[in-house]
Amino acid sequence: MKIGFIGVGKMASAIIKGLKTTQYELIISGSSLERSQEISRQLDLAYANSHQELIDQVDLVILGIKPQLMETVLTPLAITKPVLSMAAGIKLSRLAQLTSSELPLIRIMPNINATILASTTAICANELVSEELFATCQAICDSFGETFAITEKDFDTFTALAGSSPAYIYLFIEALAKAGVKHGLTKDQALAIVTQTVLASSKHLIEENEQPHALIDKICSPGGTTIAGLLDLEKTGLTASVVSSIDATIQKAKEL
Ligand SMILES: NC(=O)c1ccc[n+]([C@@H]2O[C@H](COP(=O)([O-])OP(=O)(O)OC[C@H]3O[C@@H](n4cnc5c(N)ncnc54)[C@H](OP(=O)(O)O)[C@@H]3O)[C@@H](O)[C@H]2O)c1
């Protein structure tokens, strides 16, 4: 299978890094012929002389351009191949308007962790996508992380839980590290301790297939330190505050 990228910025480059570990043949087309040549040298990839030339020779087109450029870039093209879009906020129905209602279309939502091949990626497709093509697109996403097939109506929620949440998780890590500094650790020490603990705590949930509450109960010994801190955390409303921030994220995604 030959895959062509139109637009190769931060996210497409991360995806290409994952795809380079697979058998797929890759080709790119950037914002100009000069940019295509430059990116081709940087990433050691073939380039096409134009977007149309790329489309005509590939089996799947991946769009790596910004959502606001989709209309300008796609309108002059005759798109005859399945299209995979990663553009935030562009629904499959809109993609069909911009390409063709006759085409198999796939929508994905990767996150920033694609850069370390550990993206949490959502995928959905229109009814013209065969099981085989859907499996191929899932395999493409698996090359740069973990893939979750969800219905398109859940994309905004997914965007909040996986796209935006790394920022919220970093804020939590930063807050814990600041508390360590307050109590005498250096910032570097505190960050190293907290980061390792967050990593291992996630790993623990996954590897032991545990529920967070089961592990919370295990850590909270009767009359101990953790239950004292945990109740203080809920006094300031951590759960309500997190849910409220996810509500705000989803609301904003719906407005875009
Ligand atoms: N970054 C993320 O964390 C993230 C997460 C989820 C989804 N996404 C989606 O991924 C897509 C790309 O985002 P990004 O963060 O990778 O943006 P980006 O780094 O700005 O990449 C966009 C690329 O599009 C190229 N481009 C501009 N005009 C073009 C044209 N006419 N033809 C072909 N290429 C053109 C730009 O080329 P130049 O470099 O020459 O300007 C740039 O390399 C967006 O749709 C975004 O919604 C991104």
TrEMBL record:
Keywords: Amino-acid biosynthesis, Cytoplasm, NADP, Oxidoreductase, Proline biosynthesis. It comes from the Bacteria. It is found in: Cytoplasm. NADP(+) binds at I6, G7, V8, G9, K10, M11. Pathway: Amino-acid biosynthesis; L-proline biosynthesis; L-proline from L-glutamate 5-semialdehyde: step 1/1. Its EC number is 1.5.1.2. GO terms for biological process: L-proline biosynthetic process. InterPro entries: 6-PGluconate_DH-like_C_sf, NAD(P)-bd_dom_sf, P5C_Rdtase_cat_N, P5CR-like_CS, P5CR_dimer, Pyrroline-COOH_reductase. Catalyzes the reduction of 1-pyrroline-5-carboxylate (PCA) to L-proline. Belongs to the pyrroline-5-carboxylate reductase family. This is Pyrroline-5-carboxylate reductase. It comes from Streptococcus hyointestinalis.
